[in-house]
Amino acid sequence: SHEKICRYIARESELVVVSVGYRLAPEHKYPAAYEDCLNATIHFMKNIEHYGVDPANVIVCGDSAGGNLAAAVSQTLAGRSDLPRLRAQILIYPGLQALDFNLPSYQQNQGVPLLFREHATFFALQYLNGDALHMQEVLEGSHIPPDMRLKYLKWVSP
């Protein structure tokens, strides 16, 4: 789905672009996609000289669920001393939190095509467990215990 944009980025920037074809939900539940992206990134970085890439210039990028995966891979690799450090991460409209679908960004964009609040909730549930059975609870915010909500309030709040 992203071959044309990857080719464009590679051609215009004169950079090597590696696109990971990770397993998709709901057929493949979490953490399948994360493991695919992490394993591909580690393999690339361990064999970087084969690709003629400067180890100081590796960037991970993703959009939507891929943005979530790029962020997760970046966090995982940040503590690895056996691999080159990532130079940056580029996150394009990433899905980064599923604690609260009632934050202002969800409220303000709830009628914007592709960003419908219900769609974001549905896709988050598909990604996590392949089942949208608890969609109403998630939309209401009752899927998060009160003590956990308080714990994350400083990061996830209006």
What is the tally of helical segments?
7
Number of domains: 2
How would the global form be characterised? elongated
Low-confidence stretches: none
Q: What's the gyration radius in Å?
A: 18 Å
Please report the total strand number as a whole number.
2
For the largest sheet, list the strands in their spatial order. 1-2
Q: Sheet bearing the most strands, described? A: 2 strands, parallel
For the terminal residues, how far apart are their CA atoms?
Answer: 34 Å
Structural class by secondary-structure content: mainly alpha
The averaged pLDDT comes out at 89
Helix content: 40-55%
Order of secondary-structure elements: HHEHEHHHH
How much beta, percentage-wise? 5-15%
Short summary of the structure?
This protein has helices at residues 3-13, 32-46, 65-77, 104-108, 117-129, 135-140, 146-151; strands at 59-63, 88-92. It has 158 residues and is mostly helical. Helix 2 packs across helix 3.
Topology record:
Elements lengths: L2 H11 L18 H15 L12 E5 L1 H13 L10 E5 L11 H5 L8 H13 L5 H6 L5 H6 L7
Could you list some keywords that capture this structure?
158 residues, mainly alpha, two-stranded parallel ribbon, 7 helices, elongated, AB_hydrolase_3
Structure overview:
The protein is mainly alpha-helical. It folds into two domains: 2-92, no CATH class; 104-156, no CATH class. The chain has helices at 3-13, 32-46, 65-77, 104-108, 117-129, 135-140, 146-151, and strands at 59-63, 88-92. A two-stranded parallel ribbon has the order 1-2. Helix 2 (32-46) crosses helix 3 (65-77). The longest helix has 15 residues, at 32-46. The model has no long low-confidence stretch (mean pLDDT 89).
